[in-house]
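Run GNAT family N-acetyltransferase through structure prediction, thanks.
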Amino acid sequence: MPLSIRPARPSDLPELVAWNAAMAWETEHRQLDRETLQRGVAGVFEHPRRGFYLIAERDGVAVGGLLVTYEWSDWRDGDFWWIQSVYVHPDARRGGVFRALYAAVAERAAAAGAVGVRLYVETDNRRAQATYEGLGMQRCHYAMYEALA
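Sure, done. The structure for GNAT family N-acetyltransferase is below.
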């Protein structure tokens, strides 16, 4: 069955919230606060400068999605597009959903003049890492640090 990729709409908010919560639990065993998460997802629709969501559908049924945000690179005088909040419904995994989403992001990024596409992945998620490498992405030599406010 063919996949179609489309921009997310505000009506997709409940599904995006549910997918983000499921992804956080699956990858980090982290229970997210649903109200905060809902405001966070809605904030992308309210302020498009923050990024956009894409939805993958098979036969009109949403089976996965992701968020793209932007990072300005002064070194390259352009934006990197960051892929975040990737989720594919368990029944649709290993069926080309992420591959189709990634191709759509790469196409849009090239058309917009982005300097590259990046993502981060849980250090123990070997399956995802193999998927990304299979798409031609390369592991970076940077480690990620954070300080929460």
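The chain is about 35% helix and 25% strand.
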